[in-house]
From TrEMBL:
It comes from Candidatus Yonathbacteria bacterium RIFCSPLOWO2_01_FULL_47_33b. InterPro entries: Arc_rbn_hlx_hlx, RelB/DinJ. This is Damage-inducible protein J. It comes from the Bacteria. Pfam families: RelB. GO terms for biological process: DNA-templated transcription; regulation of DNA-templated transcription. Belongs to the RelB/DinJ antitoxin family.
Amino acid sequence: MYGVYTYLMTTLNVRIDEKVKERAMAILAERGLNLSTGINVFLRQVIEEKGLPFIPGDSAFLRKKYDREVVFAKKGKTYKNAKSLMAAALK
């Protein structure tokens, strides 16, 4: 037996800067998505995360901070287990 699934769809009208729309469409197209699908993915992630699916802010700043933290972590001391970590932390 086959079932027919229908989805209730609605239209969303959003005012957005033309350049932003063009740039977003180009990026999504590179990934095989159209703008409508990209917006649907975003909205589903908002629901999943119960908020924005990213931390808003200066991405260049955050990237630099992340890169510095990775370098710091790679240079840092490592421990074989939690017991040795706690012993060092409590010194």
